[in-house]
Amino acid sequence: MAALYEGYTLCGLVPAQNQSNSGIQEVEEERDCDHVLVTDSTRSVTLYKVSDQKPLSSWTVKQGQTLTCPAVYNSQTKEYVAVSDNKVIRIWKEEDILLEKTFKATVSSDIRRVHSVPGEEPVVLFQRGAVRLLDSLLSAPQQPIEEVLSQEEAIRWSTLVVVESQQFVIFTTEQKGENFLYLQRLKPNTLQRYRLEREEPGLSPLSFSASYTDKHIRLLYLYPNGHVYQSVVSVRGLGAEEGAQALPLPRSLLLVLPVGEGLLEAASALVLDEAHVAVVGVPHPSAGAGKDFLCIWNTNFQTLQAGKEMAGKIYGQLWSFSNKLFIPHGKALSVIPYECPKSCLASALGKLRQAKSDESKAAASVPSWNNLLHGEKAPPSRAVETRKTRTTRKSQSAPSSTFDQVLELIKTAPAEEIQKEVDGLISRSDMQDLQPSVGQLASALVSRSLDDATFYTPSTLAQLVHTRSLCHSVCPDLVLLALERKDYFLCQLCLQFFPDIPEAVTCACLKTFISMSDVDAEKVSLEPDSVSFMETLMAGERGPVGLQNGFSPTSCDEERSDTLSGGGAVINTRAEDKEKISTPPEQICPVGLHKTVLLNEVLLTAYSDTYLLPHLKDLSSQQVVLFLQYLQYLYLKYSQDGFPQMNGLRSPSLSQVCIQVCTHH
What's one Pfam family here (predicted)? Predict the structure, then answer.
């Protein structure tokens, strides 16, 4: 499944006075994936190194002048190109300090944008639709520029796509409620015009995004009603029917996004790859009103795969370079790393479970086509099944509550009543799509639990997690709530079933688990398979009495000292005990049974070194040492020749243990 990782701030924003504009015109990738150019809405261009989150250079035009076209990088000449006051082309190098002392050329017509891609000559798009290569324009700056568009037609969006070593300028226009698409090919010059199908009266696209795959240009556009359409144009034979007559542009509906009340105002949809779209400014289907999210949707399976709440105002701007999303929100420009691995149907639905080598376990854990296509639920655990059967029998005599009624109950009803109604709702056979419903139920329960310290429904939350229709992105506060309420069984379930837990949350779990006492850990009810594995692994060990959290209590040492002074008979007894301890100290588990189970869940959770390492600094030196002692214990156990193979039990692999040792050193 797609994932959004921990983000960071690249720079601050100075929004426009009316707060409708972020203050940024454009973010452009520069020489490589670690450098970007940020052009503000007034006078400045700044070069940033993304990994260091710091500016390298900045250039500003004089007071009274305005940058009307964002800066781009010309990779052929290693220069920057921007436009001020619509007609003045400015070109400079990184070592230049003052723009007034660099090259300037004034052209005869207003410029809309300068587009540039690596290895190609920049292209200039004029306000009236004409296109020129930069060098040919600069050879005669005052050359006449033709008007391609009609008088009342205005460009709304443009981009540049390279197709088989040929550059295509793509731009959209609007005229009297009609929207058009233009494809301008360079060398040879051909132009094709298409008419977009009308949406509801008065609605025009909020955003466009273009990509090239399989000899086709793919155009994606989002409307205020939440509809995301795709139009595909073949590049073969493009321009053969060139003329003023606009061709109809067929479209297909890719997504219908939730819009809440009213229409979207500042939103954007951006193509990430053939199956994934990033969306900002659209409500999260499981979150309450007033919260803004950045989301990744899978267009093949119509599923929400990742979501991240963004603080502050959303401006409907979004850029993507080298698996990083750049998004202005509030008073910051944030960088959000992401990944979009290829999805199978099971993972797209959030139902892909851990692979098991045991055939019977695999048959139980991998969803069948009936599960996926017809909404049949996977067999629940015995405890959940028993609880569900009992509740279903009780509720057969009473009419079932609707989903909306259950949501209202969650706001005020006691926990027992909520448990009963949620049981009935989930067990009902006519629920075709659990994912959005479960997400909203969990979010409502978590929200009330955070607001009311006396309210908590551990069994209901565990049941919702067991449906496998929930993930961290859908309910981002669930794991932290479980840690706060010391509900470690729920933490274990989330670590098992959620494929998208951020590294910060994983580290918070590790810190909590490593800090808790063995006595408290033994009181926790945990998943049986994971306990069985560690019971088998630890069987037959004999270690020092009173070992807690990797350290022997001083009271034990004092007691032994007192005993030694008692006489030779006791000394002989200690010698006999010493002979019984045949296991070397490093092969004795430094923590208790249930604590090992929780630590194993952390070991089994997916993570990225880059985003995990900063959070490991929150661990104390004693916590790190204890965790390394446990990893050493596992490594030595796994390395033994007689180590038993326990197929089907949930356990970390030797490679996972070794990777964690390297990460924590």
Answer: NOL11_N
